[in-house]
Amino acid sequence: MVIDYASPGVFTTLDADQLPLIAGLPADPVEICRVVRGIVIHPFEAATLSLPKERMAEKDLRPASAIVRALTRLDAAPLEVQRPAHLRVVGTCRHFATLSCALLRVRGHPGTRTVWVRHLLRPWAGYRPLGHRILAR
Q: What is the rounded distance in angstroms from the CA atom of residue 46 to the CA atom of residue 48?
């Protein structure tokens, strides 16, 4: 089986009605990933904002389309518009990685995420938090 990292996949496909939201995205892959930092907020940071408790459930969203849907319920601006912290989707590193890959792929850039599992493979090295890296070519 050959995987095409330049084409949207199961978790990185955006709905047709969401495509106009990406029209103003930058072309540069690094800038695309920077956009995501302005639309997602980590749960630890969100906890300091006194958001309604139901907003914390956004951290359980998986597909990029669901993340964008939650974002546009809060603020319908195009994705390249940075939101104030209280109008960002509450998400973990998985959200940042999945959404970055989705936006890279919809722009035709090959992209995938990989999980850093050092603490699982080398337990003697001590605890290291899981993290994601975005790989773009």
A: 5
Among 104, 106, 99, smallest CA distance to 65 is for 99
**pLDDT tens-digit readout, 51-83:** 999 999 999 999 999 999 999 999 999 999 999
Question: For the whole prediction, is pTM greater than 0.90?
Answer: no
Q: At what angle do helices 93-106 and 29-37 cross, to 10 degrees?
A: 140
Which stretch of DSSP H or E encloses residue 83?
none
Q: Could you list the beta-strand ranges (E) of 2-136.
A: 40-41, 89-90, 111-116, 131-136
Cβ contact 96:36 at 8 Å: yes
Rounded Cα–Cα distance for residues 1 and 63 (Å): 22
How does DSSP assign 9-23, residue by residue? -TTTPPPGGGGGGGT
